[in-house]
Amino acid sequence: MKQAEIYRKGILAGILTEDGGEYRFCYEGSYLHREDACPISLTLPLQADAFVSPVLFPFFDGLIPEGWLLDIALRNTDVSILDRMSLLMLCCKECIGSISVVPINNGGQE
Q1: Which of 1, 9, 23, 83 could in theory staple to 19 by disulfide, Cβ–Cβ 3.0 to 4.6 A?
Q2: Domain boundaries along the sequence of the chain
Q3: What three-state secondary structure class fits 38?
Q4: pLDDT grade, residue 89 (50/70/90)?
């Protein structure tokens, strides 16, 4: 299982999880109760229920760099180009825009 905290403008917005070929994104309750809460994407509107998908949500996949920047990441790690969750966690801690992806250490369990 792989997990990452998703921040919007430095505030924890939710948790993204990949487990057994299924992706799940769930907003944090404290984030949903904020007066200034905004969805991280129009495709992931504010709601208490988790979003579930068999593929990485297009919004998150779109954060992964392309071209020469992706080539550098792939050359300097042992991550496969097909492992989109690992690439997201590797490359998107400080990506351009208001969203940050911070890996959660699960004690090495996968």
Answers
A1: 1
A2: 2-104
A3: coil
A4: very high
